[in-house]
Amino acid sequence: MTTRRGQRVAVIGATGTLGSDVVAVLDERRYPIGELLPVATDASLGEDVSLRGESVPVLTGEVSLRGADVAFLCLPPEATAPWVKRALEAHVACIDLSGAMAGVPEVPVVAADLAPPQELLRRPLVVSPPGPALAWALALAPLQARFGLARVRGTSLEAASGVGRAGIRTLEAEVVALFNQESPPESTVFAGPVAFDCVPELEHPADPYGPGPAEEQLASLLQALLEAPVPVAATRVRVPTFAGLGASLAVELAKPADLDAVRAALLEAAGLELWDPEATGPTTRDAAARSEVLVGRVRRDPTSPAGVLLWLAADPVRLAATNAVRLAEARLELH
To answer: Are the C-beta atoms of 120 and 105 separated by less than 8 Å?
Structure first.
């Protein structure tokens, strides 16, 4: 799609779950696009993406980023580095949604709802964190700001879509096979079957008595977003749902606070929707296609005088996509 005015925007990985949501959010937020460059692998040759009622052909192969204003990298982590190099060589502002560049000292991890300073947004490369870390951070940041955090323990329940369309297709194939009383196909995406099961540890840990790589990454991203070395113990579980994220968090505040004050902090926070304590939910279905993190079941931890328990639900793909687009908007001071 090309018009006379607006930005030249590249979405690398445009046909995946994350890339598709980035295109959808660009459309919904009326981002000033003059030309969209939807880039994907040869497997997507001949496909289109839709933007403002028009079909835009997907580009494959060696696509030049010269002249682009911003590039959104919606790729698997292992495929991200060459595109980062290509974007930086072309002097294109680059937003990494894969998390691959997180942990690189000069690359900031930023969330639009946490009011990052403009000097960070104007870096050539920034990381827009994956949805699970972003959801946890948005729920924890107001508590950190108001009361301080002494410790966080939590379990993240993550759908098959967390690894993209391949995860959705794998779960679908397993469900169909089991309903037909057949053996499920061998998974090339997950460590084992996930249909009608819950599988802890998204990646095999090097130390069987320590956290796995995905759990370490979640803790590291949280500390970067909160800008504090808060001790975090996370368990990540793959659950047999097609979309969504649920998380149960046990938060140890630096100082005791009553639940009214805790709820007030959450209610005033950007990017959150606090549910009534008498409401059922929120569920992961409630969060589908939402750009906010839904928080409920805020209650005291009976084992700790400064402990608070809460539940959150989010659409991690939509959350990550919206954050990335908002970072681009903030960089250009569009809103």
So the answer is: no
Q: Provide the residue ranges of all domains of the chain, joining segments of one domain with +.
A: 7-129+321-332, 133-318
Which pTM does this prediction carry? 0.91
Number of helices (H) and strands (E), helices first, in the chain? 8, 14
Is there a contact between 190 and 238 (Cβ–Cβ < 8 Å)? yes
Confidence of residue 249 (pLDDT cuts 50, 70, 90): very high
Cα-based torsion angle of the residue sequence 114, 118, 119, 120 in order, rounded to the nearest 10 degrees: 30
| CATH code assigned to 7-129+321-332 | 3.40.50.720
pLDDT score of 328: 94
- 116-172: per-residue pLDDT in tens? 888 888 899 999 999 999 999 999 999 999 999 999 999 999 998 888 888 888 889
Judge residue 317's burial from the number of C-beta atoms within 10 Å of its C-beta, 0-12 exposed, 13-18 middle, 19 or more buried: buried
Contact at 8 Å (CB) between 250 and 149? Answer: no
